[in-house]
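As a next step, the fold was encoded as C-alpha cells, giving this record:
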Amino acid sequence: MNTFARARTAQPGGRRRLTALAASAALGLSGLTALAAPAHAVPLGATTAYVANASDNTVSAVDTATNTVIATIPVGFGPQGVAAAPDGAHVYIPNVGSNNVSVIDTATDSVVATTSVGSSPTAVAVAPDGGHVYAVNLSSNSVSVIDTATNTVSATIAVGAGPDAVAITPDGAHAYVTNSGAGGSVSVIDTASNTVTTSIAAGAFPISVAITPNGARAYVASLGGSALAVIDTATNTVISTLPTAAVPFAVAIAPNGAHAYVANANSDTVSVLDTATNTFTGDIPVGTGPQSLAVTPDSTHVYVANLGSHTVSVIDAATATVATTTGVGHNPIGVAIGTTVVPVPPPVVTGVSPDTGPPAGGTPVTITGTALSDATAITFGPGHNATAVNCSATTCTAVAPAGAVGTVDVQVTTPAGTSAVSAAGHFTYAAADVSVSLAAGPAPGLLGGKINYTVTITNHGPSPVTSAAVTAVLPTPMTATSSDCGVSPAHISCTVATLAANASTTRHFTVPVGLLTLGLPYGVTATRTASAPVDLNPANNSSTRTCTVITSLIITCS
C-alpha cells in the first residue's frame, strides 16, 4: 500500500476509500494530471455542490440549478472531504496524500492557499462563524485548527486513534470527532480551549458524524457495528443505537432537522431516517459505492458522491427518488453544499421626520432610507436607543429616547452594519426659554386718557422659537385696542411666528380709562400660553402690571 493510504484493515463490507487512495497514488506516480476547466465564477446567491475526486486530485463544482459541472479545480494529492464556509466564499479540501488543506476561492474557482496540517487529513469542518477550520488527521491522531484569516494552523489537538470525521455544533462551542481506530470513540472538543473534554464510546469503527440543527443530538455512523449511535449532546451519552440494514459509510442531516440520510457503500443505497421517531422509512438506490452525502440548504435535495460509478446522485427529498445523475471526476469521495451569500448592504438613512423633539423624548419619528430591514438598534446619539422600533426595507418607525438639548445623529444598525453619519439623519432635541415682561405707560388726557401696554417676548434659547402665544387678561370693565394682537372681550392674544435665540420682540395694546372707576387699581397679567419648542423654565412666563386711575389726567402704574 502507498505511504499515504490509510494503514488499517478494511472493516466488514470493505472500505472503498482505500481503493480511491490507491487509484490516486497510481495517477500521481504515473505523472497523469487532471486539467482544469475554465474558471466559472459562481454567481451570488447560487448553490453549488463541491465534489472531491480522489483519483483525479480535483474538485468538481456542480451548479445545483442545472446539475452540470461548471468548474473542475486541481487541488492536492488524494482529496478526501469537502467543507464550505458559511458565507460560501471558500471551500476547504483535505488532501490525504499531501498532508495539507486546499482553500478554494469560489469566486474564481481557484486554490488561493494551501495549509500544511497533520498526517493524512481525511475530513474538515468549518466553524459557524467561519473563523476556524478543523481538519482531522487520520495517521497523526490529531485535529489541526486553521485560522481562516491567515490560513495557518493555530492549534493542534490530540484525539483518539484514527480520527476520520468531524462535525461542529451550531453554536460553535464543540467539535465532535469520530475516531475509527482501535477502541472506536468520539472525542468532544471544547473549541474555546481547544481541549478534549470527554470521549464517548459510539460503536465499532465510527466513520461519520452529523449534528442536528438545534445542536441537541449527534448521529454517528458505526461502520463496524452497522448502526447509528444517537448522542445526547447535553450529557454526551449514547441514548439510542439504531441498527442499519447495510454498512453505513456516512450520515448527513437535513437543515430542517426532519431527516437524516445514511450512505450505504456496499448496498449502493441511501437510507432515510425520520429523526422525530428515529425510524428508517426506506432505502433509495443510487450509484455504485456511495461514500458521502450533503443536503441542500432548503432540505429539498440530497447530493450523493458515488465512488464506484464516478457520479453524483441527486435525490429529490419529497419523493425519495433520484431526480438526476451527474458525472464528475474519478472516484468521487466527498461532497459539500455551498451557497454564495449575497452581500447585504449596510443601512442608509435619508430622512428623519419630524426632525425635532423635546429633550424628555417620546417623539414618534419615521426614518426613511435603504436596507433598513432587520434593524437591531436605532440610536439618537451614542448610547441613546430608540424604543418601539419597527422597520421595513425603506422605513422605520420608532420613539425617540430622552437626550440633551442639541443636534444628534440618528443611526440604524442591522447585521450588515451601521448607517453612516449624515445631515439627512439629524435630529434636534430643542428647547427654548421664553420669558414675558409687561410694561404699562400712562398717557393722561383731559378727554381721552389711556394706558399703553407693551409686551416683550424674549427667547433665551438655546433653540430658536418656531411659535409662541401670549395672552393678557383684562379685568372688568377694561377693553383694549391693538394693532398687532388679537382682541376679544377681556382678552388680548399676541402671537410670534419665529424668534431666534437671544432675540426679543414686542407687542402692544391700549386701554382707554374713560370707563374705569376712579381710584381703583387694575391689574393686567400677560402670560405665555404656548410655545415651541418646549419651554423648560416656567418661572419667567408671566408678568403683571397694576395701574390706578385717579383722574384722566392722573394715572399711576407700578
Q: What stands out?
A: Helices lie at 16-30.
